[in-house]
Specification:
The complex is a heterodimer. By secondary structure, chain A is an alpha/beta fold. Chain A contains six helices and six strands. Chain B has nine helices and 16 strands. In chain B, the strands form three sheets. In chain B, strands 5-4-1-8-9-10-13-14-15-16 form a ten-stranded mixed β-sheet, sandwiched between helices. Chain B has a four-stranded mixed β-sheet with strand order 3-2-6-7. Chain B has a two-stranded antiparallel ribbon with strand order 11-12. The two termini of chain B are about 35 Å apart. Classes of the chains: A alpha/beta, B alpha/beta.
């Protein structure tokens, strides 16, 4: 089974000159944790995730703490977010993006997802243009379908 | 990807078949096939028809809320050849309900107005459109504008598409059509005259009125205008002349012609892709598709074979040029 047989053909994306506020809005309304960042020809140039934004809004010393539960309110986070909400997302994106092509196998997709602990993997064509998205449940559903079909054929 | 379709105000179309439908009564639906759920809106309809003929397309516009997510989900579930790129907005997308009663021969329709689109979503959409339009050879812009979208939207999109040398098909009506044609005219224009026959602020009544309006759209820069005339005729305008396309047998049930505009547009795009740029032949193929569609009462597209069978039923007469 190939990526093209299991992928979702959706190319929702964001552009690097758009604001953090726009990213938060799109990811919330579209129920996406990660969005691909594309150029004016739909070529993928990076990704931005909710983690990237949350990381920017909590103080840097948090990493040294065992727990943040004793800090009483979210004022810190509010202040930080109001500072960065109008900044272009270009400053926060991960440009080391790993993509997959439609003709690759879904075994390869599964391996990449597990190895890099990704939630989604973006699918591109030969010119790096975004053509869709593949995630764990689509891979499992795709394989399950093949298993069931083979079983049904055997029983015949 | 060959084609990009734009639907700014999509709908979830729900068709329910209820025999002897009447108000003030409880109607129970026992069979699943008496209810049909489908993604709708004119641009999406064209993507669906193209997909049935094996042509890939990208569909863009605005979707909102759970109805919006259902529209997107239905597209992905049913049509492998359609890629989505909708901007998701805060307001809920509309739902259109049609109750079809085959016993009393009635159709009862309830159509919602649709969402209001916020300014920041419009800004994001223009960026999305600009990057999507880089690839396909053809763009189709069709249908009405939801609240919040400025009237210059269609001419803006046409201008961006023309910057990338992409051909633009436009179907719109009334003031929106007039504004779009005047400001930055699309290449192939089909006035939607179903509920509004005003173009350039003038009600179209006689054949002379239709000809005057069509010639004016050509003057504004369209390569071809296809205008329906007295339901069973079409007037086709190009820079080289004007033709009347009519049915050899004009006895078509007019109610079956509803929704044939989307089939017409899709068929012209299909023809141009397969057989090259001949404009009059393209229009004739579109009309044959609309005629072949009249076999089906509901949202269902004719096959290419059925369109080819319908071609000899159309006669062409040159009116001018």
């Amino acid at each position: 089974m190939l990526v093209k047989d299991a992928m979702i053909r959706d190319v929702s994306a964001i552009f690097e000159d758009e604001k953090i506020e726009t990213f938060i809005r799109i990811s919330a309304l579209h129920l996406r944790h990660v969005l691909p960042v594309v150029d004016e020809k739909m070529r993928i140039i990076g990704i931005i995730s909710e983690d990237d934004v949350i990381n920017e809004t909590i103080p840097s010393y948090f990493g040294l703490l065992q727990s943040a539960s004793f800090i009483p309110d979210t004022n810190q986070m509010k202040r930080k977010l109001s500072e960065i909400k109008d900044e272009p997302i270009g400053k926060f994106i991960n440009r080391n993006v790993i993509t997959i092509e439609e003709e690759d196998t879904i075994l390869h997709a599964a391996d990449l997802l597990l190895h890099h602990k990704f939630m989604n993997l973006f699918v591109v064509d030969k010119d790096s243009r975004l053509t869709g998205i593949i995630n764990r449940s689509r891979i499992l559903l795709g394989v399950l379908q093949e298993v069931l079909e083979e079983k049904a054929a055997e029983e015949k | 990807m060959e084609v990009l379709t734009v639907t700014l105000n999509p709908a979830l179309d729900r068709e329910i078949i209820i025999p002897y439908f009447e108000p003030n009564r409880l109607h129970r639906i026992f069979e699943r096939e008496k209810m049909n759920l489908s993604p709708g809106g004119k641009g999406i309809n064209v993507s669906v028809i193209l997909s049935e003929w094996g042509i890939d397309s990208v569909s863009t516009g605005f979707l909102g809320g759970n109805i919006g997510r259902m529209i997107e989900y239905e597209i992905h579930r049913k049509y492998r050849d359609i890629t989505t790129s909708f901007v998701h907005i805060n307001d809920e997308s509309r739902e259109n309900i049609a109750v079809l009663d085959e016993c009393n021969h009635t159709i009862t329709e309830i159509n919602e107005a649709g969402p209001t689109v916020a300014e920041h979503d419009v800004t994001h959409f223009i960026k999305v459109f600009r990057s999507l339009v880089d690839y396909p050879k053809t763009v189709l812009i069709s249908g009405s504008l939801p609240y919040g979208i400025p009237i210059e939207m269609y001419s803006t999109l046409t201008r961006i598409a023309h910057e990338k040398n992409t051909e633009v098909y436009l179907e719109a009506r009334g003031a929106l059509l007039t504004y779009s044609v005047n400001t930055h005219c699309a290449d192939i224009v089909r006035p939607d005259l179903r509920s509004d026959t005003r173009i350039f602020g003038k009600e179209l009544e006689t054949m002379e009125d239709y000809i005057e309006a069509g010639e004016k759209i050509i003057e504004k820069g369209a390569q071809m205008v296809v205008s329906s005339f007295e339901i069973v005729n079409d007037i086709v305008f190009t820079k080289d002349g004007i033709w009347l396309l009519s049915l050899c047998d004009p006895h078509v049930d007019p109610s079956h012609l509803l929704g044939s505009g989307d089939t017409y547009m899709a068929a012209m795009m299909y023809f141009a892709r397969k057989n090259g740029p001949d404009l009059l032949e393209r229009a004739k193929f579109g009309m044959a598709a609309a005629l072949a569609k009249t076999k089906y009462l509901f949202k269902k597209s004719p096959t290419i074979e059925e369109i080819e069978e319908a071609l000899p039923k159309i006669q062409i007469k040159k009116i001018k040029g």
